[in-house]
Write a structure and sequence with these properties.
about 450 residues; about 0% strand; mainly alpha; globular
Length: about 450
């Protein structure tokens, strides 16, 4: 099997399920054979797949894609948007964030020029195939979800679709799409009014992912909230609570009834927890080491915070959201099968974990928190085999963790010696102080157990 074929197969094996907007493998391969030329789309697929194939270089395919999108006479169809979307995803995972944002913005503008946000576009351009029509609808909604995610990590400019009215129906369930049995699609308006409709509709996992992204977009649009008692904070939190409360039992878990992992619901939960974290962390004190060191997935290079002390409710919700993101690491599925956006979700979770750790009283129990930090770092280390952005995040998280570790270790030593000198001056060490010193020795031993070594 030649290298291009291996890269093509790797795309469907490792990447496709995390961003399933192209036609299923067999439909797409048949379309390449009998349809109009789609060399640019095939190159984009191979470009992504090359990240998973040992010995394959993505640079050649990246140059080809650069030349393609710089053409003046780009093919005016959905395949051009698909190419740009795949290229932007690959660039972002490759640490080429600025270029990724530019390509993504171009994809959004091109999609709007084509009218992909209109219901009729998929019907008119689907060549009579329900699978092709569904793929076109999925491309539009994937573009929206990806744009919101990139805006969360690299700045609001990345999402040019805010306020755009879309009549494009929502995607169907993955199993129906893959089997080529596409049901009558439903709209976002129907999704919003679901609680008040007589008809009971089984919404797809992709639809819940879109709804999660829409909530995140709303939170990003209100970054000017300065005070925790702002009514908008309560309203935004209510959106997230309602998203969780109205999930059907089949969507609460990340596995379907057959035991198959559901990447769309994984991402939907990830986005919702990230949204809660970004909303409530504004009113939670952050650690300077984490805030200034872990910058690969923050819009301006730092994380905004608007408080000087702990607010009980917001601190609790931010902590829970960060913990929920960490728990996603433990799901029994290979980490490299997840979207690379999980890398940035883990970095934000790590910022919150490290901030909480740095503010914990010295004698407080912190084993569970340290395990979550180590789990985040371990996941980033695993994903760096495919995505260079994971290597950057891993290095930053481990350096910040080392700094917090050293700070707490030094603080324990200072307290120990201050108390010891004070006791010597007084000429006595009472039983209570002996117990305190014993606790300090034990805590110092626990600190030694956490060995974060900065990546060399």
């Amino acid at each position: 099997m030649n290298i291009r074929r291996r890269c093509m197969e790797a795309f469907f094996q490792y990447f496709y399920d995390s961003h399933p907007f192209l036609p299923p493998r067999q439909h797409l391969l048949e379309a390449f054979k009998i349809g109009p030329p789609r060399d640019h789309l095939e190159t984009a697929i191979i470009y992504i797949g090359s990240r998973y194939v040992r010995g394959a270089s993505s640079s050649t395919y990246s140059l080809d894609l650069d030349c393609f999108i710089l053409q003046q006479d780009l093919p005016r169809d959905a395949s051009t948007v698909q190419v740009m979307l795949l290229f932007a995803l690959g660039l972002d995972g490759n640490n080429e964030r600025k270029k990724a944002v530019e390509v993504l913005i171009k994809a959004q503008r091109f999609a709007l020029e084509l009218g992909m946000n209109q219901r009729e576009f998929a019907i008119m351009n689907g060549r009579g195939s329900l699978v092709c029509e569904e793929s076109i609808r999925r491309t539009w909604w994937e573009l929206y979800v990806v744009s919101v995610m990139v805006a969360a990590f690299h700045g609001k400019r990345a999402c040019q679709l805010s306020g755009v009215v879309s009549t494009t129906p929502l995607p169907c369930e993955e199993r129906d799409f893959f089997n080529g049995v596409v049901p009558q699609p439903h709209t976002m308006e129907e999704f919003d009014d679901d609680s008040f409709l007589d008809e009971e509709i089984e919404w797809s996992s992709f639809a819940y992912r879109i709804a999660a992204a829409r909530n995140l977009e709303r939170i990003l649009a209100t970054d000017n909230i300065m005070f925790p008692d702002d009514p908008r904070t309560y309203n935004l939190d209510a959106l997230l609570v309602n998203w969780n409360l109205h999930l059907p039992p089949s969507k609460v878990a990340n596995f379907d009834q057959s035991g198959t992992f559901n990447e769309m619901m994984f991402q939907a939960h990830m986005i919702t927890d990230l949204s809660s974290l970004l909303l409530h962390r504004r009113f939670t004190p952050l650690d300077a080491a984490a805030q200034q060191t872990i910058i690969s997935c923050t819009a301006q290079g730092t994380v905004a915070a608007h408080c000087s002390g702990f607010d009980g409710i917001h601190s609790s919700k931010a902590t829970r959201a960060a913990s929920n993101i960490s728990k996603l690491v433990g799901l029994p599925t290979p980490l490299i099968h997840h979207t690379h956006f999980f890398i940035c979700a883990l970095t934000h979770s790590s910022i919150s974990h490290l901030s909480l750790w740095s503010h914990l009283p010295l004698m407080a129990g912190d084993e569970n928190l340290k395990e979550e930090i180590r789990m985040n770092a371990g996941a980033l280390r695993a994903m760096r085999a495919v995505w260079p952005s994971a290597q950057t995040a891993f290095s930053q998280v481990t350096v910040a963790a080392q700094r917090v570790f050293d700070m707490r270790k030094d603080a324990v030593g200072e307290v120990f010696w201050r108390d010891l000198i004070g006791d010597g001056r007084n000429g006595k060490i009472d039983e209570e102080r002996k117990v305190d010193i014993s606790k300090k020795d034990k805590f110092e031993h626990l600190l030694e157990a956490l060995k974060f070594k900065p990546n060399r």
